[in-house]
Amino acid sequence: MVLRADRNLRGVVNSAPTAYKQREITAYLYGSFFGGLVMDFAAARRKMVASQIRTSEVTDPIVVEAMGAVPRELFLPLANRPFAYVDEDIALGKGRYLMEAAVLAKLLQLADLQTTDSALVVGAGYGYSAAVLARLVRSVTALESDAAFADQAAKVLAEVAPGQVNVVKGDLKPGWPANSPYDLILVDGAVSSLPVQYKPQLADGGRLVCIVRDGPVGRATLVERSGDSYGSREEFDAMTPILLGFEKQPKFVF
After folding, report:
1. Whose CA is closest to 186, among 106, 247, 120?
2. What CA dihedral angle connects 49, 54, 58 and 62, to 10 degrees?
């Protein structure tokens, strides 16, 4: 994060929606000056790429370029936009999170993306991962169960990636068979167990990437389809929060 301030940042974030007039909030978010604080999101994005993405062994140039091109701050609630480029998962509200940038970049690199791919994002939230993918593949379906999140995602994506992302509303558990098969399925949050129900929605040669977390630390997992067979492997650790609806189910004791 690149900023200069004469007050506590979190105090500004918590009070911004009610303490300042709308024009001042807008100026603040887009790097103009008010109240002694200037924030340069473009500079923060460049710093994120240099200090978080490149240092996390992300070497695929097209992934690096995409992460540096998409304005992450636009895919967060207004009050949390100043935190857009911190190296952690950021709250969207309602128990949902924007995935840490380095983890997303590593998942996309693991997916070995092709420009001809069609992709499905499960749990798209405000649409950030879909926006990054739109720069890397042919088409993106962004599945979101929360209607308000989906509406916001559609609004921002229409500006950031016009005509490239199809936002659909529905339960996350079944995926979105209507647009299958997919060359890539990305689960935008951790899951307590591998979502095997998505396997039939993969094209031959398709890949599923997700963080499987059955404990304090999750593991990035890649599933690849070859005909009617599926192979999987684990690649790196991540502490991504569990996506709502994909928690570990309690065991019943009789």
Report:
1. 120
2. 50
Cis preceding linkage at 181, omega within 30:
yes
Please state, in angstroms and rounded to a whole number, the distance separating the CA atoms of residues 189 and 12. Answer: 28
- Distance of alpha carbon 218 from alpha carbon 200, whole angstroms: 24
Mean pLDDT for the chain? 88
As a whole number of angstroms, the distance between CA 111 and CA 207 comes to 6
Q: Which amino acid is at 232?
A: S
- pTM here is 0.85
| CB-neighbour burial class of residue 254 (10 A; exposed 0-12, middle 13-18, buried 19+) | exposed
* Domains, in order of start, for the chain: 65-238 (3.40.50.150)
Any residues with CB less than 8 A from the CB of 56 and at least 6 apart, and which?
Answer: 102, 105, 106
How confident is the model over 67-92, as a mean pLDDT?
97
Confidence of residue 252 (pLDDT cuts 50, 70, 90): low
